[in-house]
Amino acid sequence: MSGYVSRYAPRPGTIEPLGEHGRTVSAAATEAVSIELRRIEQSFGQNRVLRGIDLDVPAGQFLAIVGKSGCGKSTLLRLLVGLDRPTSGSLRFADRSGDTVEANARTVFQEPRLLPWARVVDNVVVGLGQDVDENTARVKALMALDDVQLSDKADQWPARLSGGQRQRVALARALVSRPGLLVFDEPLGALDALTRITMQQLVSRVWRELGFTAVLVTHDVSEAVHLADRVIVLDGGKVALDLAIPAHHPRQHGDPDLAVFERRLLDAILGGNCCELTVGPITSIGS
Ligand SMILES: Nc1ncnc2c1ncn2[C@@H]1O[C@H](COP(=O)(O)OP(=O)(O)OP(=O)(O)O)[C@@H](O)[C@H]1O
């Protein structure tokens, strides 16, 4: 690894301002995917889980999906990454590379799902698929490990890592192919509170730097508000609330302005018959 220079060291000319909520995207940015869902229905037998979802996710947005257990968050996520097809309705993905969503989307799950018999760097190489020569694959994997500040563990075995470090390897494996869409399915749910905060900061930073479109499913409204540009609440198979979070990045835990959004989301999730509630995006804190 000698001679390997961190991409976080300032290099003139490689960072250009995006000018939105404090986000900057590096020259190594991904081809972010935009998503359009129209009248999406998903049923399992008699169980109508999604009931006419309309949703536009612009390229580069960080969208969080929250809602009660069983409201269909993971079902929607599986549709977004092409793992399932809807019962009816249409999904459209667009990026400049012209790749299919299956080729250009990666998922980070709650369990890191690492191969115990492969060293850390080789676990990251797995994220590249088959068509990359060995040297290039290793260089890319080391870059992805640098993204998650784990270059020094490249030759370590997964069993020797902490839970948070394993989840960082899983994130590096997802980032290594520079996906245009990165989907997080409760990725931090198994971590202790402090490691979780560190991981949130990391996820926020790689999203701001690499520019991919992100979709996060979480039970934690504080996490959603800390990371996302926009949070939707699912209830009764519909989008019960669609809330913009127009706060600057990076965001601080304990910020009272963010607490306003958290309260609004909790009201929508816990406040009874919220599938009938339709609230447009708000544009300023406290409105
Ligand atoms: N493959 C499947 N076959 C049958 N039913 C399914 C399938 N996948 C999901 N469901 C049902 O769809 C509903 C929504 O499940 P889903 O996992 O999307 O909810 P969720 O909001 O992600 O829940 P949680 O927060 O508990 O993870 C549940 O009633 C579940 O039993």
Automatic annotation (TrEMBL):
Residues 35-261 form the ABC transporter domain. One of its GO terms (molecular function) is ATP binding. SMART domains: AAA. InterPro entries: AAA+_ATPase (IPR003593), ABC_transporter-like_ATP-bd (IPR003439), ABC_transporter-like_CS (IPR017871), ABC_transporter_ATP-bind (IPR050166), P-loop_NTPase (IPR027417). Keywords: ATP-binding, Cell membrane, Hydrolase, Membrane, Nucleotide-binding, Translocase, Transport. PROSITE patterns: ABC_TRANSPORTER_1, ABC_TRANSPORTER_2. Its EC number is 3.6.3.-. Belongs to the ABC transporter superfamily. This is Aliphatic sulfonates import ATP-binding protein SsuB.
